[in-house]
Amino acid sequence: MSNVHELKYLQDQVRELKEQGVYRVLPVLEGANEAEVMLNGKAVINLSSNNYLGFANHPKLKKAAIEAVEKYGVGSGAVRTIIGNMDIHEQLEVELAKFKREEAVMVFQSGFNCNAGAIQAITNKGDLIISDELNHASIIDGVKLSKADKAVFKHSDMADLERVLKEKRSNYENCLIITDGVFSMDGDIAKLPEIVELAEKYNCMTYVDDAHGSGVLGESGRGTVDHFHLHGRIDFTIGTLSKAIGVIGGYVAGRKVMKEWLLHRGRPLLFSTSLPPAAVGAITEAVALLSSTTEYTDRLWHNANFFKEELGKLGFNTGSSETPITPVIIGDEAQTVAFSKRMLELGVFVSPIIFPTVPKGTGRVRCMVTAAHTEEQLLKAVSVFEAVGKEMKLI
Ligand code: PMP
């Protein structure tokens, strides 16, 4: 007799999603992730990728990936701490540290992995972690894995952060304040200068997840810390290599001793195979490109400002974004999914973001403008927003 269960409880849960109109069918890309893509057999403008600089299909990165494959093969063969540590992994960390203007960098297999591994490694029982309520899911999971005590402050609310510090700080040996650099669902930037001041006043360490600031903010995309000129005042900066950098992976930048410790206690490094050579080759090329020119970040900001200005004329609720992330907040979950579906029918892909990614009732389509879009594509997208907004009586 088979021991495979029918999983009735999961069937019920999936049926509920369908009844609520939030059941997802994944769109399928037929080709590279670019400004215009082939999606389910149709050419559409892509306003949903994190490929901020257009690096995901950049000829120089592809060439570097191919060269790395030819020399190093397709897989690294082991976890970093056994025999999966190649000279290109080491070299990438040196180049990234230089780019980030930090003492050292430790690369992980993804940004998610970084948070899942680093937070638990750098905190202990008897410590306190204080986290912004809108921090990314990977931070939330990373914090759960830590043995430290946890507290949450209201989103970017410095008075609330200080309230938590006053109430709790003195009971703990070490305290770590964690924030996203750029909040991925709203596009607002963390109040890092104020956070650093409070951290210094209450003797806390700071941890900034700059997944959406890397390659976007600061000089040539050096990130949120660079944007605020806070070098040397943030203890741990996380970056992703899968968004603006266009490939895959993540890293922690900071002190040399951080790197030494993560090498011994960063569990994803110890128990999961290191980045493949193609990825490492392409990332290294991306860092070299960003180090040599501001052309890509300049174009990204030009496009983001242009799109926001044009969309702003239509009267949608676009929240409080300060970065290329541009949410169009619809509210109701099912209506958000319907909005995105209609946009796609008219040739624009903007993915719906709904609960549990954002709080219930704040469903949105999130526009991600990139350096690779043309003004013509952006204007077409705005005209489709206008048509769908009017059709659904949202504007
Ligand atoms: N942190 C933040 C703030 C993110 O937005 C993301 C990606 N959604 C991650 C971490 C995870 O990065 P990656 O995709 O490289 O795993």
From TrEMBL:
This is 8-amino-7-ketopelargonate synthase. Its EC number is 2.3.1.47. Keywords: Acyltransferase, Biotin biosynthesis, Pyridoxal phosphate, Transferase. Catalyzes the decarboxylative condensation of pimeloyl-[acyl-carrier protein] and L-alanine to produce 8-amino-7-oxononanoate (AON), [acyl-carrier protein], and carbon dioxide. Residues 44-383 form the Aminotransferase class I/classII large domain. Pathway: Cofactor biosynthesis; biotin biosynthesis. It catalyses: 6-carboxyhexanoyl-[ACP] + L-alanine + H(+) = (8S)-8-amino-7-oxononanoate + holo-[ACP] + CO2. It comes from Fusibacter bizertensis. Belongs to the class-II pyridoxal-phosphate-dependent aminotransferase family. BioF subfamily. One of its GO terms (molecular function) is glycine C-acetyltransferase activity. Homodimer. It is an enzyme of class 2 (transferase). Its cofactor is pyridoxal 5'-phosphate.
